[in-house]
Specification:
With 337 residues, this protein is α+β, with helices and mostly antiparallel strands. The structure holds phenylalanine.
């Protein structure tokens, strides 16, 4: 090694040290330049090969190498230490702020289950607007002009003569007006009635209805499909009871009860000791409804059913007051997340 080599080696060492990214990298450089098997002993050993007249200068250069490299390492070390933990440094060992993942509202959890169950037997989801016509909500559904549900006490009418639908049945009318049979739809949505809120009533609530129309649909199809639904949503041992009832748009009409999911039919507080819980309304579509939507009542038959989602959610999730579903109290909702 000659004097020029020593000078460029010194420059190289100083710039590498200044750029050392970490304490480890700096330590490697120290070993590489000053260590026992490093450059410094090498420099010392090469002194004997330098021409005698150059030796003093080379000796000084060797000394300068040692002094400068040593002090550069020290000052880089100080730098690294002082930037490692400034007062505002991010302490990656602190526990993080856990996010609070959202979840579906209980009503939509139940709706998702209902849709999934009917999806498996071929039902598609249909939707419609919350504001609908008197024709779609009442007339087409064979509801007589003097039916109490049409009363202003029970229905929200808008200034232009339309209304907030009181049930999701108008979705079925809309669907039939726009599609020829066969029809196999499930129709979820909000419905509105002028109800004074209490533990079981809300002016806004949700329904989901089903409609199956084809050539030879019978009450047996209705019973079979709703029994399948009961088994899927509550459990395989659930029994289903059909009680005669009346709806303007179905004939015959039934109300459908499931055995109480809490006492399994023995009788308890939840089912008021009857063993049964009323779940939905249903029936065979009245031929007049087919007439109203332009279907041929002679060749068309079908069943329809409808249920209140709040009611199902309250029963399944043991919620004691419908109003809790709308209060947006995260402490309440989190229980069902
Ligand atoms: N629309 C009815 C109601 O709101 C429920 C229903 C739907 C009943 C379909 C029978 C058939 O009460």
């Amino acid at each position: 090694m000659q004097l020029e080599d020593l000078q460029s080696l010194t420059q190289q060492a100083l710039s590498e040290i200044e750029a050392a990214p970490s304490a480890d990298a700096l330590e490697n450089l120290r070993v590489q330049y000053l260590g026992r098997k490093g450059k410094l002993p090498e420099i010392m050993a090469s002194l004997k090969d330098v021409a005698p007249e150059d030796r003093p200068a080379f000796g000084q250069g060797a000394n300068a190498f040692k002094v400068q490299v040593t002090s550069a390492i020290q000052s880089r070390k100080d730098d690294l230490l002082s930037t490692a933990t400034p007062a505002d440094a991010l302490d990656v060992t602190l526990p993080g702020n856990a996010g609070q993942p959202g979840s579906l509202h209980p009503i939509h959890q139940i709706l998702a289950r209902v849709i999934n169950i009917f999806d498996r037997i071929g039902f598609n989801v249909a939707t419609g607007p919350d504001v609908d016509t008197v024709f779609n909500n009442f007339d087409a559904l064979n509801t007589p002009a003097d039916h109490p549900s049409r009363d202003e006490q029970d229905t929200f009418y808008l200034k232009d003569g339309s209304l907030l639908r009181t049930q999701t049945s108008p979705i079925q009318i809309r669907h039939m007006l726009n599609n020829p049979p066969p029809v196999r739809i499930i129709a979820p949505g909000r419905a509105y009635r002028r109800d004074t809120p209490d533990a079981t009533h809300s002016a806004t609530f949700h329904q989901v209805e089903g409609l199956y129309v084809a050539e030879k649909v019978s009450m047996a199809d209705l019973k079979g499909d709703l029994t399948y639904f009961a088994h899927e949503i509550v459990g395989k041992n659930t029994q289903v009871r059909f009680r005669p009832h009346f709806f303007p748009f179905t004939e015959p009409s039934v109300e459908v009860d499931f055995t109480c999911h809490v006492c399994k039919g023995k009788g308890c507080r939840v089912c008021k000791n009857s063993g049964w819980i009323e779940i939905l309304g249903a029936g065979m579509v009245d031929p007049q409804v087919f007439e109203n939507v332009g279907y041929n009542p002679e060749t068309t038959s079908g069943y329809a059913f409808g249920m209140g989602l709040e009611r199902i959610a309250m029963i399944m999730l043991e919620i004691d007051d419908i109003r809790r579903l709308y209060e947006n109290d995260a402490r309440f909702l989190r229980q069902f997340a």
